[in-house]
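WARN no homologs supplied; continuing
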Amino acid sequence: MKRDPFDNVREQWDKERPDLDTSGLEVLWRISYLHKDLRHAAGKRLAKLNLPNWAFDVLASLRRQGPPYQMSPSELCEAAILTSGAMTNRLDRLEEAGLVERHPDPNDRRSLNVRLTSKGKDVIDRAVGVRFEHANQALSPLSEAERRQLVRLLRKLVAARVEV
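OK structure emitted
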């Protein structure tokens, strides 16, 4: 298997501090690198559709709900793992762009629901295809069995960190 730059980093630490177990960071360095690199590459592809990563995350959360493609702002915060302040800013920008609308909740007049507009649905439908294609290309060095194994291992790590 081909070496990567993190092999050198580990060897350097093993030489300088043989008392430290670098195996945990060896995994986390690679996860962090891949996240940054793939997020950046996805952002470049989405930019061709005039859609930043942050907008993709919000619109995709709404699109996954199915008709009427609607959620409360607090549900969106949870789905996109954002604070309410960050979500409000994003919703303002998406509403200005005509991609979402806010409507009073018929069950609670104090609350609003956020809904995809037809323009927003068209934009996210194009973007989802781009994003999924990119993800599959990024994972093309792995066999289907390796992908399933990686998902199992990552799920185990996530479950240990977050109560679902």
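Helices lie at 5-16, 23-47, 53-63, 73-80, 84-96, 118-138, 144-161.
OK
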